[in-house]
């Protein structure tokens, strides 16, 4: 597990993706992908449909094992760790299709999130085993703070399934934050949001960065992605075709060609 730390200039990376390969039958979904995420930064991971973005998320979170390569988190390889062990280290995510406990209230969803860092805590929270009143009160306070952070304080008692879709997305972000992540993976968080909700989401993501949390964002809304990201990584057909600051990537010919080929331009939206 120790390995040799790569000497870095500037901020140490929290996540290093090294030469990762993943194939599904004859499809090379990831082809020697490598890049690093600096601490407290926002990286936008973009690319046309089928580029490999979701596959990379699944490799980072441990849902899929790569065929080759390594993922290092805070300086150590996480290759052999299970999903829940990666969560315990501080890797949290949201899902493309919101995955909340619909019959639970907004508050209860956050309370579950607060205990996902330990397996025992997760099971305990699911079974609602009694804990001390003090602990219960502290957890509720923390959960309310998180609801407040995403603007849902007044809806704590509402069933999450009854909330408008845009609010469910915010609730999912709050639940992921409840796990106190060091790295937050956001999978198309703006999908289904209107313009004002998207604006609110962008502010929220920047606020999360200012708390020292690193963000990897997969998002089809290019104006959001380009306006909040420090770094953009572009995948196309499993290969990394560009990496750099938003403006440089928007002007990159290979990127434009990849998007034009798919009838969507990264400078549009
Ligand atoms: N479980 C799987 N079995 C077979 N092929 C898969 C599987 N998952 C992904 N693929 C293929 O791998 C490639 C990359 O898919 P992936 O979902 O990672 O792309 P993406 O960039 O997330 O696309 P989108 O923007 O459409 O979500 C595609 O060709 C896809 O069809």
Automatic annotation (TrEMBL):
Record domain ABC transporter: where: 15-262
Gene3D superfamilies with a match to the protein in the record: P-loop containing nucleotide triphosphate hydrolases
Record protein name field: Branched-chain amino acid transport system ATP-binding protein
Signal peptide as annotated in the record: none
Organism whose genome encodes this protein: Desulfosalsimonas propionicica
GO terms under biological process: D-alanine transmembrane transport; L-alanine transport; L-isoleucine import across plasma membrane; L-valine import across plasma membrane
Pfam entry (one): BCA_ABC_TP_C
MF-aspect GO terms: ATP binding; ATP hydrolysis activity; L-isoleucine transmembrane transporter activity; L-phenylalanine transmembrane transporter activity; L-valine transmembrane transporter activity
